[in-house]
Amino acid sequence: MSATCGHAEDPSHPIMIAEIIAAGSEMLTPHRQDTNSLFLTAQLNDLGVEVAFKTIVGDSLEHLADAARTALRRTDIIVFSGGLGPTEDDLTREAVASALDIGLHRDAEILASLYKRFAARQMAMPRNNVKQADILDGATVLVNPVGSAPGQMLDTSVDGYRKLVLLLPGPPRELKPLFTDVVKPLLAEILPPRFIARRLLRMPLIPESQVDARTAPIYQQYTDVQTTILAGHGEIQLHFFTSSTVLSEAQARVDELASRVEAEMQDAVFSAQGESLEEVVLLMLEMRHLTLAAAESCTGGLLGQRLTAVPNSSRAFLGGAIVYTPELKTRFADVPEEMIERHGAVSPEVSRALAEGIRKRTGASLGISITGLAGPNGGPPGPDEERPIGLVYIGLSDDRDTQVKELNLNGDREYIRWWASQHALDLLRRTLL
Amino acid sequence: MSATCGHAEDPSHPIMIAEIIAAGSEMLTPHRQDTNSLFLTAQLNDLGVEVAFKTIVGDSLEHLADAARTALRRTDIIVFSGGLGPTEDDLTREAVASALDIGLHRDAEILASLYKRFAARQMAMPRNNVKQADILDGATVLVNPVGSAPGQMLDTSVDGYRKLVLLLPGPPRELKPLFTDVVKPLLAEILPPRFIARRLLRMPLIPESQVDARTAPIYQQYTDVQTTILAGHGEIQLHFFTSSTVLSEAQARVDELASRVEAEMQDAVFSAQGESLEEVVLLMLEMRHLTLAAAESCTGGLLGQRLTAVPNSSRAFLGGAIVYTPELKTRFADVPEEMIERHGAVSPEVSRALAEGIRKRTGASLGISITGLAGPNGGPPGPDEERPIGLVYIGLSDDRDTQVKELNLNGDREYIRWWASQHALDLLRRTLL
């Protein structure tokens, strides 16, 4: 599914390692993930810090203090998110104080601002809320421009080792601006200067093993660049990341590696700067002054939804029809009734007629069609009845020619629909190349 | 964003607690989350086990062994996922052996089956792969029906406390069947019998604070039921969970709580058994022998995509048109050109005409329309130019009447489009009630 190789490490400056601790019992249910840690990891990487551990812990003082002690023992920078609210379950402050064996003091200025916040809304402040003014002895207050709980940063030492402890609020809309605007500049002053560079190459519809076999001989030569291969949703991503004390050096290294990998993979690479497949297709259409319309059967609007998720997609995408029934295939894309009866809706004939029909009906330069069996049930009585689930036809029509591509996809309904839309976009991309 | 309250604990049987450890450096990049832990948490909960910690650790022997030692100290059941492959980075076996200070032995039977696996593909087995036959001394081999790496379970004790250690492969397609088919029956024999019951109530388009204010007085009375409130994507979910040594008791408790909450929230609850809003709407249409067609402008196919993601949606959803340009609004839904010119596309008039037009064009019993400004850029020159981003009209037409609902949404493009589709579905639901 994925692999990471190499270390973005400069031997002259040993990397500081961090542990991210997310506090909240709801993240220990089957229903919710920690989501802050991806953002925090990117931010810490930007500062030249590697994340070595992530821990998720519930709202228990004992467990939180254990997590804090464990992280203080094994990492340099400890970033807590969550547990700074006013309720009895908000215990991060107390847990960190206990782990470090230090006190908490009630900050008069924060207390005043809490009272002011409630007064401005003409509400009495509940008694509980005063604990949001509790600050670790020696910590710097990180003023939270969005919510009521301030963050805290403590620069301390344990057994002679320097430790940076950050307490951040849990809601992403509070955590993100606080980190970007307040924490990052503070850390940048404390940590040794380090510049980072990233590149992202994206490839659709190609097996991970093939990408790895062809690119590993290249990226393994760049031991100073961290290469991560991710596979999923009909796409392979190659992430390159390095850090250096010299910005231009870092950028040159990832650019060189990215260029060599691109030269190897050629037109399998649809994006050399991280753009999505939808964005690439829309840009190509726009640059060629072409417009597109779609007739979707089994994807039911997924292709249109993906294209229109991109801002300004209306410059190239006109819309089209969701032709989920045989009648609508005839009504919106002029597919002859008897063609559907004779060949079935999941046939190269109907795929071709749909692509041509939607193009003519809308006046678009290109018409694309998707018709297939997404399952879990088979086709309706008639020619489609015996066809296998996963059989999909993509039609692409312009004013000279119509091509039809047959797919045999293997997966559940969601998988088949997604891959069908992915194949449609890639057929467009390759045709427009 | 979310809260959890109560403990699914029966005081006569203290709950065993677990730590889930995901091994893999790619999960410490900004690009990839651990995904197995949600599945594993649900499975462990089913067995009456609470997850107290989740840890994500990279492919480092030192860090993995530290994570293992930490988990052995603070929890009863330790579940590793990942790090059982054949590469140098696959170090979970070695790390656990080191943390427990026990040996590994090479299992002859597994070794033979590995050689057989490669022979069957007429490939020589790379030398590295033999380490997949390394088993912790005293562990039970968990035969993996899908991949080459077997799982392992060790029932041991540390400082007089019983510890269960599970080593599972990382790929979900291997981990899931192995847990369900092999691990779960084994654990069920070892652990005290315990029955669990769950219920899920879902409510669309209602603020979390309002749900919490109205339901907390009820669910707080059920201290034996764990209640988790999740908010997101235009929906509030109330998850109820309890475990007991008597199945009927557990079910009765969550059913009673769910009924009382439902009585309080009334028709805000669209799903009392966890069904999605799409499923509920399609079921209501089918039960009333009605059909639906959609004309989508700013959502560009999202509504159709959501409806057709449900198997058998074609029984009630016919399809419709993605009318992204003014021309297609006229061409596919017969909206008069001069109406669009005079009122703009984002107007109650066009919304109404679109809903009526698509209904008549398709012969559906109901026609629904979505037209709005999703941003980030404003409307085109003309009447839409001065309208605010987030303004959306939903039209719903049947053979007697057409209603138009105005929304003023506040968020980015993705948010506005999603909420617009959510409002459209809920308008359908409330109309069909």
Features of the shown structure:
six-stranded mixed sheet, Alpha-Beta Plaits, homodimer, 433 residues, five-stranded mixed sheet, alpha/beta, Molybdenum Cofactor Biosythetic Enzyme, Chain A, Maf protein
Outline of the structure:
With 433 residues, the first copy, chain A, is an alpha/beta fold. Helix content of chain A is 38%, strand content 26%.
Overview of the structural elements:
2 copies of one chain form a homodimer. Chain A is of the alpha/beta class. Helix content of chain A is 38%, strand content 26%. Chain A folds into 3 domains: 12-190, MoaB/Mog-like domain (Molybdenum Cofactor Biosythetic Enzyme, Chain A, 3-Layer(aba) Sandwich); 195-268, Alpha-Beta Plaits (2-Layer Sandwich), CATH 3.30.70; 277-432, Maf protein (Alpha-Beta Complex). The first copy, chain A, has 13 helices and 17 strands. In chain A, strand 13 (292-296), helix 9 and strand 14 form a beta-alpha-beta unit. At the A-B interface, strand 1, helix 1, strand 3, helix 2 and strand 11 of A face strand 1, helix 1, strand 3, helix 2 and strand 11 of B.
